[in-house]
Design a protein that fits this description.
Helix content is 12%, strand content 31%. The chain has an 8-stranded mixed beta sheet. It has a 5-stranded antiparallel beta sheet with strand order 36-37-38-40-39, with helices on both faces. A 4-stranded antiparallel beta sheet has the order 1-10-11-12, with no helix packed on it. The protein has 3 domains: 238 residues, Bulb-type lectin domain (Agglutinin, subunit A, Orthogonal Prism); 141 residues, no CATH class; 171 residues, Transferase(Phosphotransferase) domain 1 (Transferase(Phosphotransferase), domain 1, Orthogonal Bundle). The N and C termini lie far apart (63 Å). The chain has 653 residues and is mostly beta strands. Keywords: Disulfide bond, EGF-like domain, Glycoprotein, Signal. Pfam families: B_lectin (PF01453), PAN_2 (PF08276), Pkinase (PF00069), S_locus_glycop (PF00954). InterPro entries: Bulb-type_lectin_dom, Bulb-type_lectin_dom_sf, EGF, Kinase-like_dom_sf, Pan_app, Prot_kinase_dom, S_locus_glycoprot_dom, Ser/Thr_kinase_AS. It comes from Rehmannia glutinosa.
């Protein structure tokens, strides 16, 4: 089944540290190879196994290789720095069984691979190619077959990729002809034959990248908004920039990346995972900087129609508000494929959207929007609402400034709850459902909560309300039990905000609980400031806020637990184990991580943040010594065009 017959496509690029694709990296080269010291094959040159040609700057080679745990030989392109890393295979479906093969330019001008029995095993197969051609390997990893007379490229390997996407390659979809360029996984780590998974671009309506499993959607990137793929959480950080989707001639739309100053590749491995890796020249290995899918919620449609997935919850699937499991028995067994159904039918009238009898819209924040969006160009979110509310078949809408309106009229499929990033999704519900929701809101008005001087929170292009229910709410009893009634044995430290305790939840998860002290001199302003800031940010070098507690006079913030405490302990406490473990390599990594976090806060986050209280005690370290900037009670949020500001009070240490 082709990707179009399966109804979708894929391709992607991003990051996550420390993971290596060991399974598909074992591609060995048992024979010594001799470089012909050229980057070009002409009709007068015969490339014999195991000889190679090398690109002009010594970046890539074309030659023969044998995958690990195999005796078959293949013609392929691989890195000079890592000859076991193959990025393209010519005869992936027709292996050679000995080392007597050759490569040359045929009389028809094609590049051909000939086995020991003088049989053509593989060819560029250009029927209209000129007689006089040359094959060149470029420093991008692309093989190009050129017409010597005109200099025109008549064939290139980048138009026929294997399992790897490289910078300057184009993964494309022609919306008129259906012709696609996709990457396709190996069958397994020892066999480059095309496997079950493909990845490419689905350009109809709003472009998205897909991974397909035998033609069926397996992972989806969410729509391209001109800057990022809005369903890829890591693209909201600065690490996944540089990619673009281009509308080319005659209906062809392609996904690409500019030529890089370092080795970067995106591989679709045999288990259906896209991995972006960067070459670490010092350690001589590949670092995985992003992968997809990352968890079960990333797998397409895990929770079925009208279900929402959140990998931080248990169970991970829940029905959208106003819906209930379509099959309660299956749902209880953890089979969510049947999804959910609406509890109360829509009346197709606008009525009172806050609880009257008519239909209204419920706002869901930080969402991966569903698949099958219909596109309507508009700069105003109100136009999306009007267009959806006046169309009885419209059941949800979302607005992105660069896309415009996204409307849905059928099932809502592949919905996911993100943490601090993502789109606002408005789903259509009956008035009775919206009325139930309104009774339970805890809303703080920013203007009422904070003073109006220059230290007040400035939320440009953001809601002026903070809904505490957007964060998981912990009860006082739960946190008291988790910390053994805030016992001093669980005290991790004290700051300006108040004491911080280690806690263990009933499910075994370790947490850190920051409890506002009445004597701290800080109050609701700092508490709400931290809630606003951290709930809207997501970065690997910022501490993650798990939830909060607001009961009577108690105000607490719940964070991920950092077993290596704060940086000041590591630097200044002679009894801390870091005095032995904190070598220069770890110190440099911590410095670099703090810099990444600050760069994100100052330049690349959806809010522009100045921390104003950065010090060693506010840098926490996880079990792998990764630094996490914390304590945003004093932070200042700048407007999008603001680059300086004044404060009316002293802040920080």
């Amino acid at each position: 089944m082709s990707p179009r017959e399966g109804g979708r496509k894929i391709v992607t690029i991003l990051k996550i540290d420390g993971v290596r694709d060991e399974k598909d990296e074992k591609r060995a080269f048992p024979r010594f190879s001799l470089s012909l010291e050229t980057d070009t094959i002409t009709s007068s040159i015969i490339l014999r196994d195991p000889d190679t040609i090398v690109s002009s700057r010594q970046a890539y080679k074309l030659g023969f290789f044998t995958p690990g745990n195999s005796t078959n030989r293949y013609l392929g392109v691989f890195y000079t720095v890592s000859e076991t890393t193959v990025i393209w295979v010519a005869n992936r479906d027709n292996p050679l069984n000995d080392t007597s093969s050759t490569v040359t330019i045929s009389e028809t001008g094609n590049l051909i691979l000939i086995n020991g029995r003088n049989q053509t095993v593989w060819s560029t197969n250009i029927t209209t190619s000129p007689m006089n051609t040359t094959l060149q390997i470029q420093d991008t990893g692309n093989l190009i077959l050129n017409d010597v007379v005109t200099g025109n490229t008549i064939w290139q390997s980048f138009s026929h990729p294997s399992d790897v996407f490289l910078p300057t390659m184009r993964i494309s979809d022609n919306i008129n002809t259906g012709e696609k360029v996709v990457v396709s996984a190996w069958r397994n780590g020892s066999d480059p034959e095309m496997g079950s998974f493909t990845a490419g671009l689905e350009a109809l309506n709003i472009p998205q990248i897909f991974i397909w499993n035998n033609g069926r959607p397996y992972w989806r990137s969410g729509p391209w908004n001109g800057q990022i793929l809005i369903g890829v959480q890591d693209m909201y950080s600065p690490y996944l920039d540089g990619f673009s989707v281009v509308n080319d001639r005659a209906g062809t739309i392609y996904f690409t990346a500019p030529e890089a100053r370092f080795f970067m590749r995106i591989t679709l491995n045999s288990t259906g995972t896209l991995l972006q890796t960067l070459w670490d020249d010092q350690r001589r290995n590949w670092d995985v900087t992003w992968l997809a899918p990352q968890n079960e919620c990333d797998v397409y449609g895990t929770c079925g129609p009208f279900g929402s997935c959140n990998f931080r919850d248990s169970p991970i699937c829940s029905c959208l508000r106003g819906f209930e499991p379509a099959n309660t028995e299956e749902w209880g067994r953890g089979n969510w494929s049947s999804g959910c159904r609406r509890r109360n039918e829509l009346r197709c009238d606008q009525g009172n959207s806050t609880g009257g009898n008519g239909d209204g819209f419920l706002r869901l924040q930080f969402m991966k929007v569903p698949d099958f969006a219909e596109h309507f160009s508009s700069r105003q979110e109100d136009e999306c609402r009007t267009r959806c509310s006046t169309n009885c078949s419209c059941i949800a809408y979302s607005h992105d400034p660069n896309i415009g309106c996204m409307l849905w009229s059928e099932s809502l499929v592949d919905v996911q709850q993100f943490a601090g990033v993502g789109a606002d999704l408005y789903i259509r519900l009956s008035g009775s459902e919206l009325g139930q929701k309104a009774k339970n809101k805890k809303v703080f008005e920013a203007g009422q909560t904070f003073s109006s001087d220059s230290t007040a929170i400035v939320l440009k292009d953001e809601s002026e309300k903070v809904n505490i229910e957007e964060l998981p709410l912990f009860s006082f009893e739960t946190l008291a039990n988790a910390t053994d009634q805030f016992h001093e044995n669980n005290l991790l430290g004290k700051g300006g905000f108040g004491p911080v305790y280690k806690g263990n939840l009933a499910n075994g998860k370790e947490i850190a609980v920051k409890r506002l002290s009445a004597a701290s001199g800080q109050g609701m302003e700092e508490f709400m400031n931290e809630v606003i800031v951290i709930s809207k940010l997501q970065h690997r070098n910022l501490v993650r806020l798990l939830g909060c507690c607001v009961e009577k006079e108690e105000k607490m913030l719940i964070y991920e637990y950092m077993p290596n405490k704060s940086l000041d302990f590591c630097l200044f406490d002679p009894t801390h184990p870091s005095q032995k473990d904190l070598d220069w390599k770890k110190r440099f990594s911590i410095i670099e991580g703090i810099g990444r976090g600050l760069l994100y806060l100052h330049r690349d986050s959806r809010l522009r943040i100045i921390h104003r209280d950065l010090k060693p005690s506010n840098v926490l370290l996880d079990e792998d010594w990764n630094p996490k900037i914390s304590d945003f009670g004093m932070a200042r949020i700048f407007g999008g065009n603001q680059d300086h500001g004044n404060t009316a009070r002293v802040v920080g240490t």
